[in-house]
Amino acid sequence: MDKFQEVSDLQLNLTLFSNPQNEVENYVYCKHVKDYLLSQHQKSGKDIKDIAYASGYAKLEKFKKHLEEWQKLEKPIPRKYLQVINVDIDTLLSLLELDKLDYEAAIKIPRKASACTVRLIPGIYSTYSFGGMVSEEEAINLAKDYSKKIKCQCMINFPGLFLIVIYPDGKVSKSYYHPSIDITKEWVQFGWDGSNLSSMRIK
């Protein structure tokens, strides 16, 4: 069977919104920071309604949605909220340094991938499976062949570590998700981990 078997329209509709995740075993992006934020929230001993109000939220459901995103470091975190749960910025910075060390160790671990994201047209994506777990080098070669065949850009994503982009002309580039932080008077924002890369949502 052709390794690049064409996908039917029905199959394409089913895979259009998938976001293949190629994970590195025992590694969590900014784990020390995430654990600290969750621990401080739990240790605050305050009712969630009180925390929401003190954080500047009138609607509890909206606060809960944002809280989930904050704990995943997916959205800028209000300093008001961090003050309510007694987060110490110096401690946060120290933990980020530990997360940077974990990142540098994880980046050296041999990786395997099972799939890549295919950019069909701007804003529309599909998935191409490698047919099982293959080495990073083999994954790049398979994605190169597929990208050339269908004349579309392919992306092999390792959330929390880096993104490999393969172009139809065979060019390969890599972008890294280094743990980082940006602190302002009102917000604390952490670097993007790439976990929601190419996500498409129907509103």
Describe the structure.
This protein has 203 residues and is α+β, with helices and mostly antiparallel strands. Helices cover 38% and strands 23% of the residues. The strands form 2 sheets. The protein has a 5-stranded antiparallel sheet with strand order 3-2-4-5-6, covered by helices on one side. Strands 1-8-7 form a 3-stranded antiparallel sheet. A hairpin with a 3-residue loop joins β4 (153-158) and β5. α2 (31-43) runs antiparallel to α6 (89-106). The radius of gyration is 20 Å and the shape is elongated. Mean pLDDT is 88; it is low at 1-18.
Percent of residues in β-strands = 15-25%
The helix fraction, in percent, is 25-40%
The radius of gyration over CA amounts to 20 Å
Give the class from helix and strand content and strand pairing. Answer: alpha+beta
Uncertain ranges: 1-18
Number of separate helices: 7
User: How would you write the strand order of the largest sheet?
Assistant: 3-2-4-5-6
- Mean pLDDT, to the nearest integer, reads 88
State the end-to-end distance. Answer: 38 Å
N-to-C series of helices and strands? HHHHEHHEEHEEEEE
**What is the overall shape?**
elongated
Q: Number of DSSP strands?
A: 8
Largest sheet descriptor: 5 strands, antiparallel
